[in-house]
User: Which sequence fits this backbone?
């Protein structure tokens, strides 16, 4: 008897020792048991956090779908961000055993994230609180199916609270729409609570409330940024005025037939409209937006000018090829002059150089598309693309002049080779994001993200690490936004905008606290506002870009100085108390049950981790 008691005491002590980095949560899933027949099922997920290298291990029996592994990786990343922890020094183990091989997957994402957060904080999860829902990169919880079946399974397995995605409460019973919240409370005394994001869910699951610190626009206002953008917009507005006037004089002297002159006149009108908008934005101190609209005016006027020459030329096909070669030479000459190692006298120059290289690579990409259009005989498209490329090259030069506006005493050597590892990591992360999103939904934004990712991989293979880094960031931004928009039926567009805007501001504030000037992030944040009323989707895209670019600013700093800085948000942690739905007797029974389950879990997990470690060693 004594050996048994000693063994139990040892197991309890071992379980306590792991209390800071091991958690258990109930997963609620749905299993098909026949044609159009589904039953809810519950199983246990164990999450352990150990010192390591940022890896994620998923051990399931029987083997489950790949989307469960994708959910685990997403859960780890979201949890680490939510808890403001650099998880590159930790490994995470997800142990899942079930008689239902179809369980897991995206609908387990929210539960996986909560368990990971609890493991990081070192707190227990309330075992009478169950949850279902997908997890999005932003931390929002997405909708799932079979809510009725899952709610019933949660009730039968001891749940007193069942957390569901916001707006996911309507179910169909006998061709009638029923509010599952009312039915569950009436039939099972089960409290169903809607949760919008992982922060809201976490307080019910652990009695701890995690919140990100709110950042106002005033807190991220930067005189250095405003001065630099005013300088940039002054130059670009001046050039746009000059080019528009030149085109107008050139057009008046032309004698093209109406079928050719009307499209050119239309482009001239568009150039003037963009220029007028640029002037208006400038007056309201939105200098980056003013610069961007000036660039759009330059693209229209440059295209119209090339189109006019094209129609007036006797050999229009030859004219297009000559222009392609000319613009190509211009880009190559600028690239040879600039693409080399630079020693900066100010840390802000690093991001400026990265932007310049990004613009040059984008110009090259546009020229590749121009040549493809030419080979297909689509000469007008070829002209538009080369006109765009030429303006993009010119804006690269304009950005380069900003290095004269910054001065400091912190030098760094700018070399693309410094970004090889960083761009590789960002490409891998974006792939994970895209794979996860493809399990959940499909959209044109995901197609765009896939194209960005392909460009990133191609650029990486050519050693163009800055362009690869930016394209990977754009891909990740669009995937994240897609998943957020997937909940649009339950969340208003205004709420999504507000959420994305705040996330961008938090990331920018974090960069500024390190003494950095996140130029692109601030630029995209301002630019997003100019589209809020006219094109909300474009506005959201630029907000997503802003958040990603603020993180890139910090990554660039670390890559070139060798000094690591965290790009994680600042958070507040406090106790959260919710009125209990259980009687005192139920609480005592639950506490005893938890002690017993803890001991049994200690035995089971010791064996599971022993078996897992053997498998990993074999690999």
Assistant:
């Amino acid at each position: 008897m004594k050996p048994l008691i000693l063994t139990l005491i040892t197991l309890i002590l071992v379980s306590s020792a792991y209390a800071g980095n091991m958690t258990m949560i109930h997963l609620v899933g749905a299993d098909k048991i026949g044609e159009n027949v589904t039953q809810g099922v519950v199983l246990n997920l164990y999450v352990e956090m150990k010192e390591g290298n940022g890896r994620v291990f998923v051990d399931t029996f029987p083997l489950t779908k790949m989307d469960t592994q994708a959910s685990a990786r997403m859960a780890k990343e979201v949890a680490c961000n939510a808890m403001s922890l650099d998880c590159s020094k930790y490994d995470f183990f997800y142990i899942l055993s079930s008689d239902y091989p179809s369980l897991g997957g995206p609908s387990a994402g929210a539960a996986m994230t909560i368990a990971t957060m609890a493991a990081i904080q070192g707190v227990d999860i309330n075992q009478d609180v169950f949850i279902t829902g997908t997890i999005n990169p932003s931390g929002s919880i997405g909708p799932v199916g079979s809510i009725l079946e899952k709610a019933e399974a949660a009730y039968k397995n001891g749940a007193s609270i069942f957390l569901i995605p916001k707006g996911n409460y309507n179910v169909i019973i006998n061709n009638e729409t029923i509010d599952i919240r009312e039915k569950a409370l009436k039939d099972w005394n089960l409290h169903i609570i809607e949760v919008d994001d992982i922060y809201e869910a976490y307080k019910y699951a652990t009695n701890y409330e995690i919140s990100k610190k709110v950042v106002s626009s005033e807190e991220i206002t930067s005189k250095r940024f405003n001065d630099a953008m005013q300088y940039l917009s002054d130059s670009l507005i001046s050039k746009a005025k000059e080019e528009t006037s030149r085109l107008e004089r050139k057009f008046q002297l032309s004698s093209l037939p109406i079928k050719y002159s009307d499209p050119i006149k239309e482009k001239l009108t568009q150039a003037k409209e963009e220029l007028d908008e640029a002037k208006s934005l400038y007056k309201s101190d939105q200098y980056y937006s003013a610069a961007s609209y000036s660039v759009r005016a330059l693209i229209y006027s440059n295209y119209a000018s090339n189109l006019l020459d094209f129609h007036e030329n006797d050999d229009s096909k030859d004219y297009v090829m000559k222009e392609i070669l000319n613009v190509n030479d211009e880009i190559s000459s600028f690239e040879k002059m600039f693409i080399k190692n630079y020693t900066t006298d100010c840390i802000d120059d690093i991001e400026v150089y990265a932007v310049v290289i990004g613009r040059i690579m984008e110009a090259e990409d546009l020229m590749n598309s121009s040549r493809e259009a030419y080979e297909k005989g689509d000469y007008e498209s070829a002209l538009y693309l080369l006109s765009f490329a030429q303006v993009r090259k010119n804006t690269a030069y304009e950005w380069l002049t900003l290095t004269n506006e910054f001065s400091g005493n912190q030098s760094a050597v700018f070399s693309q080779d410094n970004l090889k590892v960083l761009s590789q990591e960002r490409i891998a992360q974006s792939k994970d994001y895209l794979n996860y999103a493809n399990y959940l939904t499909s959209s044109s934004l995901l197609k765009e993200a896939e194209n960005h990712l392909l460009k990133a991989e191609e650029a990486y293979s050519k050693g163009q690490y800055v362009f690869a880094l930016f394209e990977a960031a754009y891909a990740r931004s669009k995937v994240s936004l897609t998943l957020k928009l997937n909940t649009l039926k339950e969340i208003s567009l205004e709420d999504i905008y507000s959420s994305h805007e705040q996330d961008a501001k938090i990331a920018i504030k974090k960069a500024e606290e390190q003494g950095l000037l996140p130029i692109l992030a601030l630029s995209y944040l301002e630019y997003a506002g100019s589209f809020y009323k006219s094109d909300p989707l474009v506005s959201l895209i630029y907000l997503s870009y802003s958040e990603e670019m603020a993180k890139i600013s910090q990554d660039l700093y670390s890559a070139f100085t060798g000094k690591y800085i965290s790009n994680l948000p600042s958070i507040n942690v406090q106790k959260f108390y919710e009125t209990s739905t259980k009687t005192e007797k139920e609480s005592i029974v639950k506490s005893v049950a938890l002690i017993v389950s803890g001991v049994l879990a200690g035995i089971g997990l010791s064996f599971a981790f022993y078996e897992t470690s053997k498998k990993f060693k074999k690999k």
